[in-house]
Design a protein that fits this description.
Keywords: Hydrolase, Signal
GO molecular function: hydrolase activity
Shape: globular
Oligomer: single chain
Protein name: Alpha/beta fold hydrolase
CATH architecture: 3-Layer(aba) Sandwich
InterPro entries: AB_hydrolase_fold, Lipase_EstA/Esterase_EstB
CATH topology: Rossmann fold
Number of strands: 6
Strand content: 5-15%
CATH class: Alpha Beta
Strand order of the largest sheet: 2-1-3-4-5-6
Pfam families: Lipase_2
CATH superfamily: Alpha/Beta hydrolase fold, catalytic domain
Order of helices and strands: HHHEHHEHEHEHHHEEHH
Number of helices: 12
Largest sheet: 6 strands, parallel
Low-confidence stretches: 1-25
Length: 289
């Protein structure tokens, strides 16, 4: 009888502790190798200058840089210029591919709430591989907005130093391809990027920047895809946020939504933002070429 009582007490105690007596190592912290292996599942193939998992950041570029593509933004195409340009300046560059829907070959199509955890997994692997505490994020279009969900709701604020959004869909877009009847069938992320969507309402409620993270948006007045272009910009304190319009410093610059990530002017602003304390300096004078 006493043995039976002891067994019962053991079961009750285990239940009170959340089953800890029986889970063993089920909740053990993943090893470095496990974190890297999980991240590599989201590695974007064929991105030149990116995804060298042996790369170690330098004192001049102390944090690894994670590139986050846009909707339907196949990694190698989205970053065909920017990844190599930044790697040549000494950055440890990593690029993921996220947001696949079943039966759809294009990335960035799933709901933001499904894609953001994939970014979280990738960042954890990059941190494990490089031995650093924080990353810098550079994203294009949806990739400039989706990481804000990771930063705000999934613990990313403790792991991200700078968030640079290039033509980001921070407040959605009225572009004609975001029709719900199309989006619900093939592109859930398109619905999330409709102005006033439940996702954007949640993301932008109360504040648009998170404490501890520096934000820079880089936009062009000639963006024909994320419209109006003013909706790409964020609101927040000046010590934490800078909204850059390329034509303010270089009036004759004519890149639009796609070419903005293939612009040397964009590279200059990105490098400037990432190599100083705080966000980009609005007074920075790039070489307009």
């Amino acid at each position: 009888m006493r043995a039976a009582v002891n067994v019962l007490l053991t079961l009750v105690t285990a239940a009170a502790l959340g089953g800890a007596a029986f889970t063993g190592t089920a909740h053990a912290t993943p090893s470095k190798a496990e974190l890297i292996a999980a991240a590599k599942k989201y590695e974007a193939p064929g991105v030149r200058g990116a995804n060298d998992w042996n790369c170690k950041p330098s004192p001049q570029r102390p944090r690894p840089l994670v590139l986050v593509h846009g909707t339907v933004g196949i990694g190698w195409a989205n970053w065909i210029y920017l990844s190599q340009a930044l790697a040549s300046q000494g950055y440890c560059v990593f690029a993921l591919e996220y947001g696949h829907r079943p039966g759809n070959p294009f990335p960035g199509m799933a709901h933001i709430e499904q894609s953001a955890p994939q970014l979280a997994t990738f960042v954890d692997g990059v941190l494990a591989a490089t031995g650093t505490e924080k990353v810098d994020l550079v994203g294009h279009s949806q990739g400039g907005m989706m990481p804000r969900y990771y930063i705000r709701f999934l613990g990313g604020a403790a792991k991200v130093n700078d968030m640079v959004g290039i033509a980001p869909s921070n407040h959605g877009t009225w572009h004609g391809t975001w029709f719900p009847e199309i989006g619900f069938q093939i592109c859930n992320a398109c619905i999330d990027q409709t102005p006033g969507s439940a996702l954007l309402t949640k993301l932008n409620a109360d504040r648009e920047v998170e404490p501890g993270v520096d934000y820079t948006t880089i936009v062009t007045r000639y963006d024909e895809f994320v419209v109006p272009w003013q909706g790409q910009q964020l609101s927040g304190p000046a010590h934490q946020l800078t909204n850059v319009v390329l034509q303010d410093a270089c009036p004759s610059h004519f890149s639009e939504h796609a070419l903005i990530v293939a612009s040397d002017l964009t590279v200059q602003w990105v490098d400037h933002a990432l190599t100083r304390e705080g966000p980009a300096d609005p007074a920075f004078k790039p070489n307009c070429g």
